[in-house]
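Worked Example 4.2. Consider the chain below.
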Amino acid sequence: MIVEIQEWLKEAAAFIRVSLANKVTVSQKSNRTDLVTNIDEETQTFLIKKINKYYPNDSILAEEKGFDTIESLDGRVWIIDPIDGTMNFVMEQENFCIMIAVYENGVGKLGFIYDVMKDELYWGGKDLGVFVNDQKLQQPKDRALSDGLIGMNAYMYGKNIYAAGEIGHASMGIRVSGCAGIELIAMLKGNHIGYISNLSPWDYAAGLVLIEEFGFKYSDIEGKPLTFSKREYFLAASPTAYTQIQNDFVHKS
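Applying the procedure from the previous section yields the following structure tokens:
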């Protein structure tokens, strides 16, 4: 299964790179900054066709085209974000990812985050370790909030939602990439100690498998389990930073 998924991702990424040289059709969803393109939709269709062909009994949760809800996580479930960071894709043509996760009865088994333009595939799974392409990564050190950079949703930071502004000031600084996959990669590499945002399940599912393998803690911003059913305020961080954020900021705000 791992090799199959890697091949699908490489094929999808090649299609995306070629498509960037052609006309990309951009549409609005809920507002002018909530975008979808024909490439998002075609990439998702490609991946779903692969899953349906080789794993026809599995369920699928994905961002586009009516796949954005699921009754339960029972059985094997594939969670797909065909282009995470669509605004970056449209405006910058970089800093976006394809993400695939495989869950079994609610437990993350495999996660894949593919930085398309850098041709870097971060992947791994429960008890497998975490890799970038063929290189195994080392688990980052457990650092305190004051010792690291933290990825942040710009709106949460600016409005100080759940003390996000105060958390940012207590860290070494915030970084805003506009792509959950890029932020989660930064945690896997040890460049960031955490990430706070407002995410849907396809934004975080693949990354959770990987950061959990490295001992990071995660939950909704209040410390409750993520629901995998709606957009929700999201927190992931090194164990020490996570505890500090919860105790010193979130529950005092």
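The first strand starts at residue 26 and ends at 28. DSSP finds eight helices and 14 strands in the chain. Compare this with Example 4.1 before moving on.
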